[in-house]
Amino acid sequence: MNYFSSDFKLGILGGGQLGKMLLTETRKFDIQTYVLDPSDEAPCKIGSNKFFKGSLMDFDTVYNFGKQVDVLTFEIELVNIEALEKLESEGIKVYPSPKTLRLIQNKGTQKDFYTTNNIPTAAYKRFENVTALKTAVANNEIALPFVWKSTEGGYDGNGVKVIRNSDSFNGLPDVQCIAETMIPFKNELAVIVTRTPSGEIKTYPVVEMEFHPEANQVEYVICPARIDDAVAENARAIALKVSEHFNHVGLLAVEMFQTEDDRILVNEVAPRPHNSGHYSIEASYTSQFEQHLRAILDLPLGNTDSKVAGIMVNLVGEEGYSGNVIYENIEKILGQDGVTPHIYGKKETRPFRKMGHVTIVNQDIAEARRVAQEVKSTIRVISQ
Amino acid sequence: MNYFSSDFKLGILGGGQLGKMLLTETRKFDIQTYVLDPSDEAPCKIGSNKFFKGSLMDFDTVYNFGKQVDVLTFEIELVNIEALEKLESEGIKVYPSPKTLRLIQNKGTQKDFYTTNNIPTAAYKRFENVTALKTAVANNEIALPFVWKSTEGGYDGNGVKVIRNSDSFNGLPDVQCIAETMIPFKNELAVIVTRTPSGEIKTYPVVEMEFHPEANQVEYVICPARIDDAVAENARAIALKVSEHFNHVGLLAVEMFQTEDDRILVNEVAPRPHNSGHYSIEASYTSQFEQHLRAILDLPLGNTDSKVAGIMVNLVGEEGYSGNVIYENIEKILGQDGVTPHIYGKKETRPFRKMGHVTIVNQDIAEARRVAQEVKSTIRVISQ
After folding, report:
1. Coiled-coil regions in this chain (chains A, B) (predicted)?
2. Contact B307 A303 (CB under 8 A)
3. Do A331 and B2 touch (CB under 8 A)?
């Protein structure tokens, strides 16, 4: 198959920042792209060969879009799976497959999948709705505290809540859910695995999410994770096992906990380029976006090693600011060695909206960590 | 000035591969771009915010284009300078300035400039036309052999010829020219210098052009150059001096000869991103394209050090093939560690047309060099 400067067409469902960073790679290789997104101001409107405005959840819209391309991928899981299934049955290559997506989209079936395949994960119970869960708690079938998770539609911390007492149930939607044992953990880790249709598999190094000591919020994604080699090897081996069992194609980001006693438990997976892999653009021999592209086109996978240590800081809209965005002090952080801001191209900021990220690279991880802290305390995402 | 996700507009004259790689950086920073190019199939048609088809040599076209932007730059020197001068006089920031461009565009004034400023360069004489040059040769005022260079319009080896005897004059256009002493040199080197309007200056490491042992053609651009530290330091110091005297803004690629006795002579300069800096996309902390953008926007310059050794191989159309391009064996080179092809997006190949380049990076420069040779002997740019 000739992908480069040819009539071949790659379709991408979703035109947000993940799609935008994927387009950097399709442009580099001159591979034609069609993108579908509901917003006329999607970051992928520029850089794609053809942009289509339309709903990702509407069967006909997704189906008609998919019929025009040779390979179809997505940068967001919330898409019409039935349309993907029909497209796949009609010979369009859909990567990751709708079957994988179905397994992953529902956190209940995802957890069952880990259990069935002997992949370590926190203990859990599934419930048809919150009413049934409350009954189980009242009958002492579930011990407090525990973690409530909506099985569908959760995103970026939405659909997850720690239940400490009966008051914690207030405001929860009465949807299908799971109750998961709370795990006291040392570290939250992630490993990105890539797999091609031919079965070539590679893992990226383990990254570590460093949390703010008070606010329970990820502040830095750090590669390599500052953990023992044995723990890192185990985490990569488990991620590889997850990938093999899913039989997926493309990127799979595997989020994990390192427990107090150094066990690795799989938390959840995302079948696409992932926030925890953004550092790879500057730090790795092959960025996660190029790797995803190589995978879904069944090209050889690139080297996943790092050239240098990398740390990523998310740029989110500051509280109290809405409207046309200003990146205050961005010129100050550009004055630091090894600092690269990525601006996603959203004109309007809102509190906590993901507006961009900054990567800090250095030969010395401690120096990168120092600069990352300075970056974080300097740049502000505010409005005019 | 707020450049990021704002109404600020950067204009780029020329929409070829250099512009295309610059657009990767403007997209990363979400800086709006307008691009002007005569071809409707220019690589920059995708990735720019607005694309204009039109002549770069036509006064009105360039002037009217420039009036719509805040800062104007170019990826090719063959543009209408009078229009740039008028735009600059009307307050549009033009970087590099038309004054610098005028000095550089004519190889005669460029050579005079080096002489005036005590910058080492090969001895030369200027002639109004080839007829006058022939007379000088007949009168033994110029010794054979020497290098003939057309003062204007030369590009990629056009407008340059070694004159060994009177037959060598055959076919030369009767234009303004220089006759330059032939320099027996060990190495052809280049240094990229970047300067901001505020006067911040940084040089990249010295790169080396490795020639094919028989055909007199550059095969590899290698960073760092495999030369003595003292020679490298001298080359960077001379490049810095050239930049300071030109007072230019943006990138300046300074091409130099290392003579048999280790002197450095400046050959010529290009006031824009340059083929000799393509390695920087994968190998450097800051790519030459990001650096050019930082410079013309008067942002702090990035770190010019390399993370790893980098080697670049040009992908040019193979002799005997014209038409819709095929990159034969590209999947094979993708299977090698640290190999990144850049495909410029020209649908049709022609003999010697620049269609792309491949960067090879590695911690070990000897290993990079080995892989580069394998890449060069594997990939072929042919037609369907």
Report:
1. none
2. no
3. no
